[in-house]
Design brief:
- By secondary structure, the protein is an alpha+beta fold.
- Helix content is 55%, strand content 18%.
- The chain has 5 domains: 117 residues; 104 residues, PAS domain (Beta-Lactamase), CATH 3.30.450.20; 118 residues, Beta-Lactamase; 87 residues; 148 residues, Heat Shock Protein 90, CATH 3.30.565.
- Strands 2-1-5-4-3 form a 5-stranded antiparallel sheet, with helices on both faces.
- Strand 3 and strand 4 form a beta hairpin.
- Helix 1 runs parallel beside helix 4, helix 10 packs antiparallel against helix 12 and helix 20 packs antiparallel against helix 22.
- The protein is rod-shaped and about 210 Å long.
- The C terminus is likely disordered.
């Protein structure tokens, strides 16, 4: 350990020594032995000072020596005195040079120590395990990361050369073999291995070692390297490989499914009996999104009131492609002749065909089915049933089926039903007439005799009022008998009961709407069925109840003939009523019923239609009353008539439950 002197003390001692030497030289002349003491003053004075302090003390000592020489030899001097002066100055200069060299070496040593410290801090700061070995492969350096990761002290690992102990036993021999081979060949060393963490788990590490060569000879002087934790990276790569394998499997499966789907679609697309069309609804979708942003809730009502917006939506529908079956069946010369034709020009009623699809697109539904009538190339008609799948991007795929034969059969069936209904009404009226004629013949004859007798009695000069009173009593009795006969006949006709069953009124109403679809299309009207939730069923004769609905809907359609087409609507509402009842309301948007006609609307033989016989509503009322219900009529405040049926709910689970 070197002696440490306080810089201030050293400066004081150096000053005293310098003055003492100067005084001695002034008295005795410059002496080489005494002058050497200036070297000691320079050494003491420069303690703690830099090169400038050394030079100052050296210059001071040199000046004092020269000054003392000049003063003592002012009258002359000998050569030996001059030589002593030169020797003294040389000693001062040599001392200054030595002190400067010593200080420079100390600075270099400090810089080296600081550099080593910085290098160590840097090595310990990096998130890698750094190592260094000599040419024989003996480890002589490990940074702090080694101890942080493995839990083994760096000093112990270097002293015992146990740096390879944390390597996984399955990887250790391979790693050492590669390390020996790299030192033998002098090439860079790279490898992956598992290294034990201080918590006992193994992490994959990437090891790199490089030789350090002498710049003069090129020989290897040592090896340096590092280990990088690549555990997460390798595990992520392995997971990516697993995901790629799973993805390849899924792609193969989906490709097979797609090929099968394409084959199925192609077989469907090429079927001569199935029509397929692809349409683009994106332009109409833009208008619908704008309407939704504006807060429109009732799209149908809004479009029917704003015909220009409705027509813009319809005009925004374009046909993209069709299969061969449809354009050939419609009689076109080529596919493009049909593709280039606007969809609104290809159907008899564009509003009825496209409005439900606009509603579905607006409400986010992806499937619509209905019927319409296509216009052939020659102007003919072809009724079809269609199903449309709507995609979010505005693409729509429509599948259509020709139902010309079905419609013809349906028309025959409807005609037969109407004829049967007319026959039933005629038979009912005939039966009622025969029954009334047979039953009423005797009381009417009796009443005629009593009336004739009464007239004769009253024509006398003195009428017998007691006899007249008796005649009136008999007339009243016969009138009561007539009323009883009529009621009995009515009950006999109405009470031809059939077996009752639970009936879902919502389903029956929808079935009736479909049954009358041709009549609805022919009148260019719209019939909508709306049903409430959990509507109970009713016990009824399904056929008779459906005939009531047919009669009411037909009457409503007949009332719309004088109304503009865009306002021809019939609403059938099925909902739960009060006191365990079910309510059915058939309402139209026609002109309504005059007040004087409402009071007589259910009377037999009263009709408001030319050619009617006035029995339809009377039979409807009889049927509903026979089921324990009620049928009423009223005019709606907004216009049109409303027929309301009320029936008791059956003791069964609700419809659709």
């Amino acid at each position: 350990m070197g002696l440490k002197i306080n810089p201030w003390l050293g400066a004081v001692v150096a000053g005293v020594l310098t003055v003492a030497v100067f005084v001695v030289e002034l008295r005795g002349g410059v002496d080489a032995a005494v002058t050497v003491l200036y070297a000691l003053a320079i050494i003491l004075g420069s303690i703690g000072s830099g090169p400038r302090g050394v030079l100052v003390w050296s210059a001071l000592c040199a000046l004092l020596t020269a000054g003392a020489f000049v003063w003592t030899h002012r009258h002359g001097f000998a050569v030996d005195s001059a030589l002593r002066l030169v020797f003294g100055l040389a000693a001062i200069a040599i001392t200054a040079a030595l002190v400067l060299s010593r200080n420079r070496l100390q600075d270099i040593r400090k810089q080296l120590e600081q550099s080593r410290h910085d290098q160590r801090v840097l090595a310990d700061s990096v998130p890698l395990i750094l190592w260094g070995t000599d040419t024989a492969g003996r480890c002589d350096f490990l940074n702090a990361r080694f101890e942080e990761f493995t839990g083994i002290a760096v000093e112990d690992a270097i002293r015992d050369q146990s740096w390879a102990e944390p390597i996984h036993p399955e990887d250790r021999a391979r790693m050492l073999r590669l390390w020996v081979g790299a030192r033998a060949s002098g090439n860079e060393f790279r490898a992956h291995s598992r290294v034990r963490h201080r918590d006992g788990s193994y992490h994959w590490m990437h090891s790199i070692g490089r030789p350090v060569r002498s710049q003069e000879t090129g020989a290897i002087v040592r090896w340096i390297g590092g280990l990088t934790d690549v555990d997460d990276e390798l595990k992520a790569q392995e997971r990516i490989r697993e995901l790629n394998r799973e993805l390849e499997t899924l792609v193969a499966e989906r490709s097979a499914e797609l090929r099968e789907t394409r084959w199925r679609f192609k077989s469907l697309y090429d079927d001569d009996n199935i029509f397929v069309a692809e349409q683009n609804w994106s332009e109409a979708g833009v208008i619908l999104r704008r309407l939704k942003a504006e807060g429109v809730t009732d799209l149908r009502g809004y479009l029917l009131e704003n015909q220009e917006v409705l027509q813009a939506c319809i005009a925004g529908v374009r046909t993209v492609d069709v299969n061969d079956a449809i354009w050939r069946r419609l009689g076109y010369e080529s596919k493009m002749d049909l593709v280039l034709k606007a969809p609104r020009d290809g159907v008899v009623d564009a509003v009825a065909a496209l409005l439900p699809q606009l509603e579905a697109l607006y409400e986010g539904r992806d499937y619509v089915t209905s019927t319409t009538t296509l216009v052939r190339a020659d102007g003919g008609r072809m009724p079809v049933i269609f199903a449309v799948n709507l995609q979010p991007d505005g693409t729509a795929y429509a599948t259509l089926f020709d139902i010309t034969e079905r419609e013809a059969a349906h028309e025959l069936m409807v005609a037969a039903q109407q004829e049967l209904a007319r026959a039933n009404r005629a038979a009912t009226v005939g039966a009622l007439s025969v029954s009334i004629a047979h039953e009423l013949n005797q009381p009417i004859a009796s009443m005629s005799i009593d009336i004739a007798t009464g007239l004769r009695v009253l024509s006398r000069d003195k009428p017998d009022y007691n006899m007249v009173s008796g005649i009136l009593v008999r007339l009243r009795r016969n009138a009561d008998r007539l009323a009883g006969i009529v009621q009995q006949t009515r009950d006999q006709i109405a009470n031809q009961e059939r077996s009752l069953e639970p009936v879902d009124l919502a389903a029956l109403s929808e079935e009736t709407r479909l049954l009358l679809e041709r009549e609805v299309v022919a009148r260019r009207a719209v019939v909508k069925v709306r049903a409430g939730q959990a509507v109970p069923r009713v016990m009824a004769d399904r056929v008779a109840l459906q005939q009531v609905l047919v009669n009411l809907i037909i009457n409503a359609l007949d009332a719309l003939t004088a109304v503009p087409e865009e306002h021809r609507n019939v609403d059938v509402v099925v909902e739960r009523g009060g006191d365990d009842q079910v309510r059915i309301c058939v309402a139209d948007t026609g002109p309504g019923i005059r007040q004087d006609e409402i009071e007589k609307i259910f009377q037999p033989f009263f009709t408001t239609k030319p050619g009617g016989i006035g029995m339809g509503l009377q039979i409807c009322l009889t049927t509903i009353e026979r089921l324990g219900g009620d049928l009423r009529v009223s005019n709606r405040p907004e216009g049109g008539a409303s027929f309301e049926i009320t029936l008791p709910a059956a003791a069964v689970s609700p419809a659709g439950a």
